[in-house]
Write a structure and sequence with these properties.
Shape: globular
Largest sheet: none
Structural class: mainly alpha
Number of strands: 0
Order of helices and strands: HHH
């Protein structure tokens, strides 16, 4: 029997801005630093990355 996966929630203890990256990293078992770096690097590409972050900040509930 496997352990239940944690629900997607913003991590309010390890947040830098809104806790979105740290919450996603915790949910999917990723490195928080690597996910934050990938997000920052993706911001140089054209697209709605910052808008998506703000929407996730509003939609994902806090711990």
């Amino acid at each position: 029997m496997t352990a239940p996966t944690p629900r997607l929630r913003r991590d309010t203890r390890h947040k830098r801005l809104g806790g979105v990256c740290s919450g996603i990293a915790r949910r999917y078992g990723l490195s928080t630093g690597a996910l934050r770096l990938a997000f920052v690097l993706s911001c140089v590409l054209p697209g709605p990355q910052i808008v998506a972050y703000l929407v996730l900040w509003l939609v994902i509930p806090a711990d």
